[in-house]
Amino acid sequence: MDGLLDNVPCGIARLDASDVVVVANTTLAEMLGHGSTDALIGQPLTAFMDPASRVFHQTHTRPLLRLQGAVNEVYLRLLSATGEPVPVIVNARRGAGDVVDYAILAAPLRSDYENELLQARRDAEEASRAKERFLSTMSHEFRTPLNAIIGFSDLLGAGHAGEVNTEQKAQLGYIHEAGRYLNTLVNDILGYTRMGTTDLAINLVRLPVATILARVEALVGQEFTRCGVDYRREESDADACVTADPDRMQQILVNLLGNAAKFTPPGGAVTVRWAVQGRQVLIHVADNGPGIPAADRNRIFQPFTQLNRDDNAARRRGVGLGLAISRELAQAMEGDLTVVSEEGEGATFTLSLPLAPD
Q: What is the rounded (10 degree) CA torsion for 149, 150, 156, 159?
């Protein structure tokens, strides 16, 4: 063989139509531990393969060469002069008269990489099983007290522990509604962390925006009082209706208003308004808090993302799933959730939902 090919850093072999080596370079001979190319020439290439590679070569590589004329990055194990396996990567191209030229690259670490990948896969599967066990336990631990809260609020409201007045019934109704909502939220969070994305049943009905917002205000009104934040509902289209799932729409708005209360400094204000725009209803939740840096405005919708928008760490507690779930829910209802903000000038989150037909 030409001396130039003898010095290339990969094995070179030419096989005839019978798969017999007719030309080989010195690099290939040295790769396999032979003193010269004479040990290779005149032998079928399969004579230098382990059994598994021999079968693969006959059933995969050669048929592909006949059909396509070339194969790339085929992993085989050749055998050295002492019978030791030599992992290689093969590229081959068929020429005239079914002659095939092979370029053979040594890949001594390939098996190590494969073993590492297999171990990583086993570790990931075990981590997934551990997560499932944890989620199953956590689900039970959450649901048991929540169901008790819901059940006992029903019993108290029905007068089983004595007569209750109108105001007490209203307060018990808020407890029941909050417990039922939290139970739904726990189920959704558990589902999100299991599957990596929400896969939630959506029941689309015609909903007046003002009615849903009144339910939400009853749930989160105390949060504004606790945080010392003024809540305002601006005059909006009182008759506007959307096509949405009532529980999912409530979940989104509770999250938006809860976040606004947490991240608005005491003495600040949160304003809600909505308007019809084309075939969508846009519901705006605006605060005058610290705002969101430009680099973070898309990141906040990613799971498990939390931003330090103020210095009150206690008020920021959470797992960073609220906005991610809320956007998924909005999009599942053929809407969206977006944000506009300037750092230091507050933020406005906009929930868009389809306008309900008349």
A: -160
